């Protein structure tokens, strides 16, 4: 029997929790024979839901948590007020070694904070990074993955050069494993492609990344290169990453609103949209974020997959599968090993080549 | 007529009858109890495909594959063999009623022999006879085949208690509940007649079933019905059949419920668990999670689960696990089980509502409709 991976799922987190979360986890229990799913939440509610769904009763268990953090609550306050909230109990289970990975579609801030307070960072990793996936023009890896990875998008607001190098290692390891991309192209997000462009932390990180042989570093890219898919892993600080992500989401929503406006405004435009509908549907299926499941919080000793707040059952099943893949492929071990190799090389290198002191840390 | 003639002719050997039964010319009628033999204490009736044997016949290819498989190729579900062996003890009776064709008798009997499973009756479906008589409706029919087979078996060897095992194709749950309700006289012969019409039984078959139902020894006999969730069907779908019917994901869960029913000892439950672990398909964690699942569904009390861990620890100390150096100390195993119970906090399972009589005609109609839908959708 393959090694059993215990995946803890916050059953109460998400806009459609607990029904869709439980449904997704139940489906995952049928698809993953070497996984045990631990649903954390109100045992009475979960006990009523599970028998309605096809699942494997020997592979899904319930761990009671009497409360949960609402999607719109302030993370730090909610965690302080609800010490038995499902996300805290779930993160605790992993921290105590009763689970191997965590999946949540709940309040992002509370989820990240709960993990950060309870989990250990990997050796060599200074700061964790929350990643997000973004659909692009180009496909990548053996799976023709249309998504590129952007990190950090909010876990670490102000990143130093060393942090950015760490993010590059973590993002590359994740893309290798999850997108089956042997040599993911890693880029730094800056205000120009030239190595000297950008704030000191970017310039220093660029200098350090150029030296690495472990990564396929392609240099700096600009914001407009993200949707083009020039890079498979886009590295930036949490503050910039969050602004970029929100802007990209805003642009997508605006395009949809414009299409709706066009649909209402003129018959000719409406006919044009109808003619394009099959192509739009195909585009939607290619860039369907639900097939991706979620994005990881990287840098800790355990994988955490943050599923979209609006996740339905399919997205949760896929998020659980991503967590399973991260465990089966020893994602955290790979990150730690690469970080150790980088560290060893930087210690062997003459002082002039080392990363300059962090800027803004 | 032909049968009795052959019996007379073959005074020294019943070979022609056996050959006739094997190729499907004659029905195999269970012998029942020998003269003077004591009545069984408890009869356990088992379906075979998808209940004892892992069988795929959802497609024509699966069906063909299943038909040409040798006995050694056939796989029993983990824990089923140990459970059957445990149930056979203490003067109990094992009766197998399977929807597989009579031509499969030899290979299935060999499989049971290879597994060391002893049985008292083994009834298979005579589909060749149905084809020769042009009774194509009967090829798929379950109620007109299984119900008389069970009634006939009970008439031949009545036991004060019975436990039935089937799979999550809806027909098994309906037939088993109908059988139980006929014995307890909750279903009258008039009701049965209506059910047989709904299940499209041929007239002579219906008359035979009504005759058997009138003659069968009655009583509150059927204590427990187990439905093996082979398709992983939602267990809630079986709740309407009442608390006596327990859907189980695996045979450890069945053993747990039989332990609470005082049919099995803690030691016997351990042997079922060990067989499941030895299959390589289950780990201790799965078994502990299985315990939590039956508690959550209200099919096993927490007290009983905790009592089992105490008794199992005692049994383990007295040698039930001797020679099992691959397992952690039993105290550790027991603690894993207790932990799963504690994980539920103070929550209680959904309480059972009042036991309402089942509308079998509606159930049969629904089952036919679901079967039609599955055929249309290719599943």
Plain-language structure description:
The complex is a heterodimer of chains A (361) and B (379). Chain A has 361 residues and is α/β, with parallel strands linked by helices. Chain A is 45% helix and 18% strand. Chain A is built from 12 helices and 11 strands. In chain A, helix 2 links the parallel strand 2 (35-41) and strand 3 (60-64). The N and C termini of chain A lie far apart (47 Å). Chain B has 379 residues and is α/β, with parallel strands linked by helices. Chain B has 2 domains: 42-246, Rossmann fold (3-Layer(aba) Sandwich); 262-342, no CATH class. Chain B is built from 17 helices and 8 strands. Chain B has helices at residues 2-9, 15-23, 60-68, 80-88, 105-114, 127-132, 137-140, 143-156, 170-183, 189-198, 203-215, 251-260, 266-278, 284-296, 302-320, 330-342, 360-377, and strands at 42-46, 53-54, 75-76, 93-101, 121-125, 161-167, 222-228, 245-248. In chain B, the strands form 2 sheets. In chain B, strands 5-4-1-6-7-8 form a 6-stranded parallel β-sheet, with helices on both faces. The radius of gyration of chain B is 21 Å and the shape is globular. The model of chain B has no long low-confidence stretch (mean pLDDT 87). Classes of the chains: A alpha/beta (361), B alpha/beta (379). The A-B interface holds A 1, 4, 6, 30, 36, 42-44, 47-48, 50-64, 66 and B 229, 231-236, 239, 249-250, 253, 280-283, 285-287, 289-290, 292-294, 296-297, 340, 343-345, 347-350.
């Amino acid at each position: 029997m393959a090694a059993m991976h215990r995946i803890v799922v916050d059953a109460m987190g998400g806009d459609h929790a607990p029904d869709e979360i439980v449904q997704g986890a139940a489906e995952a229990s049928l698809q993953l024979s070497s996984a045990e799913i631990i649903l954390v939440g109100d045992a009475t509610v979960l006990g009523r839901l599970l028998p309605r769904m096809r699942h494997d009763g020997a592979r899904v268990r319930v761990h009671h948590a009497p409360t949960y953090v609402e999607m719109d609550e302030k993370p730090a306050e909610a965690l302080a007020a609800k010490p038995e909230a499902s996300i805290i109990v779930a993160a605790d289970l992993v921290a105590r070694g009763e689970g191997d990975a965590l999946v949540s579609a709940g309040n992002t801030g509370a989820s990240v904070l709960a993990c950060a307070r309870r989990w250990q960072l990997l050796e060599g990793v200074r700061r964790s990074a929350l990643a997000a996936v973004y659909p692009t023009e180009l496909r990548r890896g053996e799976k023709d993955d249309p998504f590129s990875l952007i990190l950090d998008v909010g876990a670490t607001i102000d990143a130093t050069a060393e942090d950015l190098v760490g993010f590059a290692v973590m993002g590359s390891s994740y893309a290798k494993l999850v997108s089956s991309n042997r040599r993911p192209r890693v880029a730094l997000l800056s205000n120009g492609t030239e190595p000297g462009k950008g704030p000191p932390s970017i310039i220093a990180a660029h200098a350090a990344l150029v030296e690495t042989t472990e990564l396929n570093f392609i240099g700096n890219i600009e914001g407009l290169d993200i949707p083009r898919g020039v890079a498979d892993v886009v590295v930036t600080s949490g503050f910039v990453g969050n602004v970029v992500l929100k802007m990209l989401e805003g642009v997508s929503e605006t395009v949809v609103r414009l299409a709706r406006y066009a649909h209402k405004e003129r018959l000719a435009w409406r006919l044009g949209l109808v003619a394009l509908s099959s192509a739009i549907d195909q585009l939607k299926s290619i860039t369907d974020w639900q097939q991706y499941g979620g994005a990881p919080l990287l840098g800790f000793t355990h994988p955490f997959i943050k599923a979209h707040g609006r996740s339905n059952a399919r997205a949760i099943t896929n998020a659980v599968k991503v967590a399973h893949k991260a465990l089966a492929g020893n994602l955290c071990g790979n990150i730690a090993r690469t970080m150790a190799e980088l560290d060893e090389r930087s210690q062997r290198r003459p002082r002039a080549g080392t990363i300059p002191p962090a800027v803004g840390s | 007529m032909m049968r009795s003639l052959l019996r007379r002719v073959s005074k020294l050997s019943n070979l022609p009858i056996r050959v006739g039964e094997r190729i499907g010319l004659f029905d195999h009628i269970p012998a029942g109890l020998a003269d003077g033999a004591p009545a069984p204490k408890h009869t356990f009736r088992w379906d075979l495909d998808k209940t004892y044997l892992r069988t795929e016949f959802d497609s024509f290819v699966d069906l063909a594959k299943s038909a040409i498989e040798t006995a050694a190729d056939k796989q029993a579900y983990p824990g089923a063999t140990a459970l059957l062996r445990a149930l056979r003890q203490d003067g109990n009776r094992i009766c197998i009623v399977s929807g597989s064709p009579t031509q499969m008798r030899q290979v299935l009997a060999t499989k049971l022999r290879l597994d060391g499973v002893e049985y008292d009756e083994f009834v298979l479906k005579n589909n060749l006879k149905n084809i020769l008589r042009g009774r194509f409706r009967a090829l798929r029919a379950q109620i007109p085949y299984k119900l008389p087979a069970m009634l006939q078996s009970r008439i031949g060897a009545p036991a004060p208690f019975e436990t039935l095992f089937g799979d999550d194709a809806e027909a098994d749950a309906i037939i088993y509940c109908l059988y139980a309700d006929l014995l307890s006289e909750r279903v009258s012969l008039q009701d049965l007649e209506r059910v047989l019409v709904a299940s499209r039984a041929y007239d002579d078959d219906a008359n035979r079933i009504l005759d058997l139902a009138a003659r069968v020894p009655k009583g509150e006999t059927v204590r427990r019905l187990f439905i093996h969730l082979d398709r992983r069907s939602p267990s809630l779908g079986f709740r309407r059949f009442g608390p006596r019917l327990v859907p189980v994901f695996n045979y450890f869960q069945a053993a747990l419920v039989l332990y609470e029913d005082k049919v099995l000892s803690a030691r016997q439950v351990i042997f079922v668990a060990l067989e499941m672990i030895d299959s390589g398909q289950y780990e201790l964690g799965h078994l502990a999670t299985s315990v939590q699942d039956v508690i959550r569904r209200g099919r096993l009390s927490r007290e009983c689960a905790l009592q089992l861990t105490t008794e199992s620890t005692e049994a383990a100390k007295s040698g039930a696990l001797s020679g099992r150096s691959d397992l952690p100390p039993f105290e550790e195993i027991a603690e894993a089980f207790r932990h799963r119970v504690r994980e539920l906090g103070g929550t209680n399972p959904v309480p059972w509502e009042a036991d309402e009589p089942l509308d079998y005609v509606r159930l049969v109609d629904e089952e036919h409709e679901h079967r039609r839908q599955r055929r249309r959708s290719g599943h």
